[in-house]
Amino acid sequence: MPLMLLGYLSGSWLGALIVCRLAGVRDPRQEGSGNPGFSNVLRLHGRRLALATLLLDTVKGMPVLWLALVLGMPPWAQGVVGLAVLLGHSYPLWSRFRGGKAVASAFGVMVVLTPWVALCCALLWILLAWRVGTAAVASLASAGLAPLASIWLAPDYVGVVLAFTALVLVRHLLNIRRLQKGDEPSLR
């Protein structure tokens, strides 16, 4: 239970808000897509701030997950801690539950728990973001790949990765509707 709370608290620290405040630019929740994440910060404020956001959102949950590993928690319990990180990022209490889509945070959690699955998903995300130019397509495809890759590369974590994927998909429902209408913003 304490590690779950610690996971939620670490996840709720939104990298985009910190980066944008330090840079003296507007809160990304007030502009563009309204999402405090990499894609919106990229469109609004450029690569430098977007990469800083991506880095912070990726690494913020890692210390608590390393602690779960050191304590010898079973994979399902490590997954619950990781899910707490993602829930903190998606629904942070002090930001009135207005958080991000959990893609970068899920990547960071998977780097610790299932590094080879994380690598496969990252490569697919980069390829699709480059070729299609839409973060939502890249994120949804990568989330879909994660459970399939975990069957082969991290079978003890399949259930955990399925839970992460479900959360990312739920957080992208609006993006899915915009993709269907052809209104999803491009990364370019």
Automatic annotation (TrEMBL):
Its EC number is 2.3.1.275. Pfam families: G3P_acyltransf (PF02660). It catalyses: an acyl phosphate + sn-glycerol 3-phosphate = a 1-acyl-sn-glycero-3-phosphate + phosphate. It is found in: Cell membrane. Pathway: Lipid metabolism; phospholipid metabolism. It is a multi-pass membrane protein. It comes from the Bacteria. Probably interacts with PlsX. Belongs to the PlsY family. This is Glycerol-3-phosphate acyltransferase. The lineage of its organism: Bacteria, Pseudomonadati, Pseudomonadota, Gammaproteobacteria, Oceanospirillales.
